[in-house]
Amino acid sequence: MREVVIRPSPLVPRLWGLARQFVVIIGLEKIYEVSRGIVPRQSSVALTNGLKVVRLEKTWHIFDEWKVQAIVFKHAQWYVGPLVLDRTQIISAVNHFYLYSHFLSTLAFLIWLYLWRRPHFPFVRDIIFVTTALALVSYIAFPMMPPRLMGAHMHIHGYQFKDTLTPLINYKLQQTQLTYNPYAAMPSLHFAWALILGTTLVLIGRNPLLRLIGLLYPVMMLATILVSGNHLLLDAVGSAIVVTIAAIAVFAAHQRPHIVARARRMRRMSHPLSPDLRV
């Protein structure tokens, strides 16, 4: 009688590996949150830096974020075909998307990447890590107040940025939370992660729907951070620069072992055997 060997499902070790990866990812994410939270909250410096960026945008004639928010607040109701959307519903949807999609969408994306595109997982994961680390350095070196907190200081004729997150966030609670830092606006980590997610889906997504999501998600996040008053356009530009630097650094780090191995092979091929090894 032939012995029947029952082999474990390949899904089991894959899920176990995924669990180990997420222990590391969540651990590093918590370290980032605590590190960001313990940065001194220099409100005057953050306001000065924020106004510097505003003046730069005005010089370049791209200071139009307030117009994006003003469009949303222009009408009490919006008619989209047969649908009638109340302004408060739109603002609520924008705020919830800003607060929750940042982590949940990235989490779902990394699970998909690990289970179905695992060869790409280490590279993309490391880009997220390096991007987050660079953003943290920026928050320490260049604390910046978001537009929703700068208000009248920006001197916009006939309009003042509205703080759309007020209904959802208890500021007294925020001030007691170790991980909260209201002056982490440059770069926008929300947009940076969305850019990594979207670019990856476009490049390696085989399903047209995934590629479409990859195209739309960063655009939706950009609109969200502008409408909510959490970031300026140059914050998003800073995000793209940080992601680019992180991608180049990670690519170089991942290629280094291959370059070293190739150099060793070339060295062995170019040098004859030593006299002690000749027959």
Structural class label: mainly alpha
Q: Say what oligomer this is.
A: single chain
Strand tally is 2
The biggest beta sheet is recorded as:
2 strands, antiparallel
How helical, in percent, are the residues?
55-70%
Q: Can you walk me through this structure?
A:
- The relative contact order is 0.13.
- The protein is 68% helix and 3% strand.
- The chain has a two-stranded antiparallel ribbon.
- It has helices at residues 11-37, 43-59, 65-74, 87-116, 121-141, 147-150, 171-176, 189-204, 208-227, 233-270; strands at 77-80, 83-86.
- By secondary structure, the protein is an all-alpha fold.
- The protein has one domain.
- It contains ten helices and two strands, in the order αααββααααααα.
- α8 crosses α10.
Give a short synopsis of this structure:
With 279 residues, the protein is an all-alpha fold. It is 68% helix and 3% strand.
List keywords for this structure.
single chain; 279 residues; mainly alpha; two-stranded antiparallel sheet; 10 helices; globular
Which SSEs are present, and which pair or pack?
Layout: H1 11-37, H2 43-59, H3 65-74, E1 77-80, E2 83-86, H4 87-116, H5 121-141, H6 147-150, H7 171-176, H8 189-204, H9 208-227, H10 233-270
Antiparallel strand pairs: 1-2
